[in-house]
Amino acid sequence: MNIWGNAVQEHYVSKYRKNFELRREKIANLKTKEDAEKYVADICSKIRGAFTFPAEKCDLNIRVTSRKELADCNLELILFDSRPGYPVSAAVYLPKKIEGKHPGILLLCGHALDGKSCVTYQTAGRSLAAQGAIVICPDPVGQGERLQYYAPKINNVNEHNVVNRRLLPMGDHTGNWRAWDGIRAIDYLLSRSDVDPERLGITGNSGGGTMTSVVNSLDDRLSAACPNCYITRWHRNVENELPVDAEQIIPGAAADGGDMADLLLAVAPRPISIGGQANDFFDIRGTREVYEEVKHVYTLLGYPDRVRLNVGPVSHGLSPHLREAAYKFFHDTFGTAGELTDTKEPMLSETEMRCTPNGRTIELPGTVTIHDLIREELAATVANRKPLTRDEAVKVVRDILHIGEVKCPTYRQLRDHGQKYNNRYSRYGVELDPAMVTTMICAAGQTYYKLAPEECVELYVPHQAALAELDVRKASEKQELFGIDYRGVGESTPNGCDQDVREFFAPYRYDYHFASIAMLIGESYLGDRVRDVLGAIELLSAYGAKKIKLTCSGIGRIPALFAALLTDKDVQYTPDVPLTGLYSQVCDAAGTIPQSMIPEGLLKYTDFPELEKLVR
Question: What CATH number labels 49-379?
Answer without folding.
Answer: 3.40.50.1820
